[in-house]
Amino acid sequence: MKKLLFLVLIGILITACGKDDSYDPIEVDTQAPSKPLNLAASEQTETSLKLNWDASSDNVGVTGYRIYQDGTVLPGLITETTITIQGLTAGSAYSFYVTALDAEENESAPSNTLEAFTIEQPLTFLPLLSQMGVFDGNLSDLNPSNGVQLYEIHSTLFTDYAHKQRLIRLPDGRSMRYNNTDLLPTFPDNTLISKTFYYNLDERDPSLGKKIIETRIQLKVNGEWLVGDYIWNAAQTEATLRETGSTESISYIDENGNTQNVNYQIPSKQDCFTCHNNNATTSPIGLKLRNLNFIPSYTNQNQLDYFAGLGLLQGVNSGSTSVLPNWEDENLFIQDRARAYMDVNCAHCHQPGGSVPQGFLLDFRLETPFDDTGIYANRGEIIARFESTMPTYRMPQLGRTIVHTEALQMLNDYIDSL
């Protein structure tokens, strides 16, 4: 029995030795470097971006870095923790990440992914509307170009019963941002806002065509808003940039089949500043968040939420801001309708810093407490000015030449209720 056990042990030992003779050592990978940290961009220009990052504190033995742009590695090994990427396209979005390499070319995990933008070439007013990139196809069809977004406002400004198409175009990848108020959001540079004024030839059948008069455009350039007005030609094939005002005779058929004649006033550039300036700063009027907070005709979703879903608006939704009442909604209290109408039609001038000379102690902003508006003390003159068509006396003085009948009745009811 002992002899048998001895032979078994000898067999096991021989087998083990045979395995040792044929053993191939397993190669153990050298540990890769730690990934770079805090990749960020700075010094953006129209065609370049400067990237900066931090080396990990335990990155001993790192000999360089690789840069990945939009998933593709850029040629060359970078030995510093900064690089300026050249030859980019103005106003474009790019994605970057960085990896570290050691002498054996072991590559680290990627850094954080960075989304960065080059600066757009500053917008400017070109001589013709067709050059501004607002519309595609036949210009008079008013079809917004790709990236140009239609918008509507809840309570509208009166302009002699003209229709208005409102559009906004933001730079690629940029958005409007909540500004801690239900008034205007913060707009990125190179925002374009467009408003086109027109009349249907026959309100009973809009398919019969329209008479387009002007397309007003605002551009935000280097933090400031610029204004320009494009006046349409008689053939409705083009509109030309012009700074002087004029009067255009318009004739159309209203919903009741009656012919209406309007001496439509095209504003001068200075007229635009009269309404759009406050304390010598130019800004939009209608795009206040509270005036966008409703369900418009072009979608079945609240407009603020719709914009957020498209990436056009950040930091706010329909439930986190107020709503400017629609003055045409007869189901609302008369005071809410009247204050909303005054806010959107009059308050851009009648507020602190507005264009109305000192001494007219009126503040028509919706947020102004009633006792501070001056409405009650001036109630008689308010109605008299709304009833008037005299250029130097009517209110508003710009934007209308005829009486806004429906609004006047509503305002009369409001004044009578005080």
Description:
This protein has a six-stranded antiparallel β-sheet, with helices on one face. A four-stranded antiparallel β-sheet has the order 4-3-6-7, with no helix packed on it. A three-stranded antiparallel β-sheet has the order 1-2-5, with no helix packed on it. 18% of the residues lie in helices and 27% in strands. By secondary structure, it is an alpha+beta fold. The protein has helices spanning 2-22, 269-276, 289-292, 303-310, 334-345, 379-387, 405-417; strands at 37-42, 49-54, 62-69, 72-73, 82-85, 93-102, 114-117, 135-136, 143-144, 148-151, 163-169, 176-177, 192-200, 210-221, 224-232, 239-242, 246-253, 259-266, 277-278, 281-282, 313-314. α5 crosses α7 and α6 packs antiparallel against α7. It is built from seven helices and 21 strands. It folds into three domains: 37-117, Sandwich (Immunoglobulin-like); 122-323, no CATH class; 325-418, no CATH class. The radius of gyration is 33 Å and the shape is elongated. The model is unreliable at 1-29 (pLDDT under 50).
What's the arrangement of secondary structure elements?
Elements (H helix, E strand, L loop, with lengths): L1 H21 L14 E6 L6 E6 L7 E8 L2 E2 L8 E4 L7 E10 L11 E4 L17 E2 L6 E2 L3 E4 L11 E7 L6 E2 L14 E9 L9 E12 L2 E9 L6 E4 L3 E8 L5 E8 L2 H8 E2 L2 E2 L6 H4 L10 H8 L2 E2 L19 H12 L33 H9 L17 H13 L1
Parallel strand pairs: 12-21
Antiparallel strand pairs: 1-2, 2-5, 3-4, 3-6, 6-7, 8-9, 10-11, 11-13, 13-14, 14-15, 15-16, 17-18, 19-20
Helix pairs in contact: 5-7, 6-7
